[in-house]
Design a protein that fits this description.
alpha/beta; five-stranded parallel beta sheet; 59% helix; binds cobalamin
Amino acid sequence: MSSEEIFSDIVESFKKLQRNKVIQLVNLKLMERVNAEDILTHGLVPGLREVGIKFENKEYFLSDLLFAADIMNTSMEILNPILERTVEKMPSTGKLVMGTVKEDIHDIGKNIFITLMKASGFEVHDLGVDVPAEKFVEKVEEVNPDVVGMSALLSTTAQYFKVIIDRLKESGLRDKVFVMIGGPPLVTAEEVGADVYCNNAFQGMETALENVSKD
Ligand code: B12
């Protein structure tokens, strides 16, 4: 069976906003020893994206998006402790400063990346959402991180990655940190001056670990 088939029940129930069914299915898959990373990557994330498509097509309203975010957050409460246990904790990792950029309040992806980075041993400084460039710069000056991570989900706010990175350059900090941007592919790393673009938190964690252990 392909992963699409295995997780189609989660995707379909999510799409219909069947909260209890999604949660039941997550628990059921875990009991069947399905990997938490796969449940998230092939079930919950595509399910939530389907809700986004319905919103775009005006079949769903903002209240439905909020409800979908709640289904996702409740599911993550179940998966987080398992993800934390399955990620290999490295003996010496590094520091991460992370935030969702200005005028953007989407934080589900950011929080997943943070969970994985903490689990792998990173000291995480979470700036939250709607974070202006100055706050990134201040935090980088204060804690001297190895990695700066930024998330943006809107076409408008993804433009802000460059503003933040330019500010880091002006402050002489850009070359001291590994800059990771993430969310849907709205811009490329090259366009905004980041080191890497990631639309998968698990790959993001691997990339961060590789980069920091190289130092
Ligand atoms: C849930 C949701 C909301 C919730 C957010 C709740 C929350 N606490 O986050 C609410 C209801 C608040 C919301 C509001 C809005 N939303 Co909204 N939302 C979504 C939805 C359905 C899901 C987003 C999500 O969480 N996905 C799941 C996560 C896990 O995926 P992800 O963020 O991509 O993260 C993964 C990777 O990208 C990666 N990652 C993410 N960041 C980073 C960073 C780093 C460093 C790394 C390494 C990895 C990484 O890791 C994650 C796991 O692998 C999307 C639809 C979609 N296609 O995504 C629309 C969507 C993003 N929203 C959209 C819009 C338009 C809005 C509003 C403007 C609606 C309105 N009219 O008010 C507002 C904007 C509010 C604001 N100023 O930010 C549009 C954006 C269109 C565009 N291209 O600009 C979308 C695409 C829906 C659509 N199809 O129209 N939204």
